[in-house]
Structures are given as structure tokens and as C-alpha cells.
Amino acid sequence: MTPRIEINLAKIAHNASKLLQLFGAKGIDIMGVTKVVCGNSMIAEVLIDSGIHMLADSKLENLKKMRDAGIHAQFILLRTPGLSEVESVIRYADISMNTELSTIQCLSATAMKYDTQHQIILMVEMGDLREGIMPADVKGFVRETMMLPGIQIVGIGASFACFGGVMPSEKKMKQLSLLSSIIETEFSLSLPYVSGGNSANYNWFASTESVGNINNLRLGESIYLGCEPLERIPIPGLYTDAFTFVSEVIEAKLKPSKPYGETGQDAFGNHPRFMDKGYMRRGILGVGSQDVLVAGLSPEIDVEILGSSSDHTLLDLKQTHLKVGDEVRFSLNYGALLSAMSSPYVSKEYHGTLSESHEDPRPTEEKSKQKPISKNLDIRTHCGLK
């Protein structure tokens, strides 16, 4: 069935295990981020079996889904909660990340209501300008938070390369590490988690002589796509093809390359421009922007994506012999993976066994030379088209 995303669980397990070993060699533990896979319970189970016991997600619905599926882990809400969500935070998150005192006050009141203790990590603004307490305000923030019953500060953290593209440099990591030392000393407070960032920290980690107090990272993209997010360069020894997007050709015809007639806006309010390349073999896939971020797809055969509407994607078929019913396979970037896993219109198909996860992957450069060919569906025979 198409469209579908094929998920190789063994390759995810391999990547998770390798990254756990890699970062663990310098004393850094990992939170497995499940938001890009929408809290998928099968993938969460793979992370747990691979040795990652902290699962972080930005959606409370996903935390609840994993808990209801019987996943045994420590669950972290990966963002500052809304005031309307505090009761769900107490119920479904063991730890939440916070930047607003008013929200923590509500968490405190709700924790007391349920006679429980809620742990929080305070996020510090380090330049990316997404979420975070300004560094100059952190000490006062800690002082006020420590007065609240039912709340335990267990760490500080920072985000990088999420909004502003700011890199987690050596200087930034030293600043965060120093701030953690100041907090621990001044407030006699132990911080089990000094969370230095995410998959974008790979280059810093690989080059630094000392990680300082940084003892935690939140990894998603490097586990699922095998690369670091700053330049999308593959990480040695990891699989980059654990996910494959597959769609079916629903039309294949010789047509002009440039639309003809009076033109206005397209379906999304754009004014597209086209070069006249004469007639070309054009294909249409039964998938569009409602299903996946088409701009984040890279075909594994020599075709070109010309554009998409809500439910069609147009291809220049070039010299291929694709026909109606053939499948075209694509690799995905992070945005495409997020949209495909979130879409109810994209079926999820699981491959790989966990025993395969102990095999070493082929080098990335070797894999890149091997281009899969399109798969012809059995339905062509069934429908009398062959």
C-alpha cells in the first residue's frame, strides 16, 4: 500500500546502540527523542532494548501513548508546558523542561494536589533564541523555584540549531558547564542532568578535549537518520537509510514541460515559474503536501521532483521506464520524516530484526553507490496490465 514509510527497526537499534557507546565513552548519557516518530511504541521499545532508558517528546499525547503501550522508561516533556497542560504534565511526564516561573508555580500546586514530586530541568537561553531563561536571571530563578513545594530541580539545559541555527560551540558548552557549577555551589544543589543540546552537538563532542559538566544530550536525528543536523553529514558507522518513503506512479505521459494558458496563483498561493524544456516524460505520484514535506524527499533513482499540490507530486521521469503502478523510493530529511510519521495517510511498514542490529553497516560512501531500482507492483499483473 502506498504511500508508505518503511522503517528498519534493526538499523535504528544499531544507531542507538552505537551512539550510546560513543557518547558514553566521555560520560554523556542520552535521552532518546521520540517526537519525530510521534511516540511510536515499536520504535520506543527498540530504543529501550538498545539501552536508552530516557525518552523525551514535545507532545504529551505521545508520552501518554507510550505509557499506555506499556513502555517502561523515564519520560521527559521536551518543552515548556502550557498552563492548560500542567495536570497532564504531572500525570504523564517524570521530568519537564521549564522556563516560566508562573508555569512552575502551577506545576507545584498540581504536584501537591496529587501528593507527588515533579522534577524539572531549567532551560537556559544560549543564543539560539528559542526557549530559555536569560543567563543573568538564572540564579534568581533557581532561588525562587527552590521555595516551591513538590518541585525538584534536577538539571539545566540549552537548545541549539533549532530556531536560530546557532551551533553548540566549545565556548557555549563551557559557559553552560560553568553555570551548572555556579548553581550547584551557590545553592548546594546537585544537578544530575546538564543537557548540552541535541544531535547538533556531535561535532563539538568529536573535537572537544573535555566535555566539562555536560553529561546529557537529547538525540533524535542522529539516531533515526544517522547524521548530524548542522551540515547533515553522515556520522561514521551509522545507518542513514533506516527510513524510506515509497509512493506509487498513478500517471506517466509525454507532456509539455511548461504549463500553457493564462496563469495565476497555484494551490498554495505561489506564482510558479517554469523553463520550457520541450516535451518530457512526466509522472505523477499519488502523494502530496498533505502527506509529506515533498521538498524533503530525495529520489533513489534518476528522476526529478518538479513540484507538488496537496495530493499529487509531479516528476520528470527522464530516462527511466517508470509506468503506472511502479513504486518510487525516496530518502527523507528530518522535516520529511516528521511530516510522514505524523500523517494518517502514510502507512507504516516495519522491517528488520533486532538480531541484525549487531551487524556493522556498510560505509556511507559505499551505500551511496548502490541505487535501488523502482519496484513493479504485483497489482499490474492482477489488473491485467502486464
TrEMBL record:
Residue span of region Disordered: 351-377
Keyword Nuclease attached: no
InterPro entries with a match to the protein in the record: Ala_racemase (IPR000821), Ala_racemase_N (IPR001608), PLP-binding_barrel (IPR029066)
Gene3D superfamilies: Alanine racemase
Skewed-composition ranges (Basic and acidic residues): 351-369
Keyword terms, alphabetized: Isomerase, Pyridoxal phosphate
Coiled coil: none
Residue ranges of every copy of the Alanine racemase N-terminal domain listed in the record: 7-225
Cofactor: pyridoxal 5'-phosphate
Name the UniProt record assigns to this protein: Alanine/ornithine racemase family PLP-dependent enzyme
Species whose genome carries this gene: Paenibacillus agricola
